[in-house]
Amino acid sequence: AQKVTQAQTEISVVEKEDVTLDCVYETRDTTYYLFWYKQPPSGELVFLIRRNSFDEQNEISGRYSWNFQKSTSSFNFTITASQVVDSAVYFCALSEARGNNRLAFGKGNQVVVIP
Amino acid sequence: DAGVIQSPRHEVTEMGQEVTLRCKPISGHDYLFWYRQTMMRGLELLIYFNNNVPIDDSGMPEDRFSAKMPNASFSTLKIQPSEPRDSAVYFCASRGRGTGGSPLHFGNGTRLTVT
Fold this sequence. Notes:
The structure holds two protein chains of two kinds. Chain A is globular and about 45 Å long. Helices cover 0% and strands 54% of the residues of chain A. Chain A is mainly β. By secondary structure, chain B is an all-beta fold. In chain B, the strands form two sheets. In chain B, strands 2, 4, 5, 6, 9, 10 and 11 form a seven-stranded mixed β-sheet that branches. The N and C termini of chain B lie far apart (36 Å). At the A-B interface, strand 5, strand 6, strand 10 and strand 11 of A face strand 5, strand 9 and strand 10 of B.
């Protein structure tokens, strides 16, 4: 069964520092999709990024970047030059192509950006 | 695009009462998901529909929970009778066609409190 582990529970950083969130996943499927979602204090879940298992190219989108490494089953997410508005819970999630469309979430990382 | 719409935003009820949560997915989306979020268990998939048909309800905690999708633009999650342990935030999400690589779009959630 698919599984997502986010070991860090709460991370505090000072504004303008970078913060990296770790995500380790388990799957038996060869085709799968990885996601990061953000849940700000207002409570909604906001889609941030997606990666499929065939594309290990790491990218940068604005202040967000991600590091996908199949060899270590990791999909880490970095916020560069953090801002107070980045304070939120960040969820890593996994969907398997043959996994009946279930999107399995990790427990989340609480990020606190201190001004 | 209005996004996924859930109602009510907050619901407070007494143990034993029936609770009905409502969801309107994004127009054109074929999949609809109900998730529950608690501090202890994180985000759990309860049930999902494809083209209005329930596909996987293995996450529904017990017979007190039921979900319906009478048409492509409306779904309900009902708890009867409600219990204090049902207190949680319930999210509805939808996505378009595909094998699971399309991101889920979440509603703002319904915060349920059962006293």
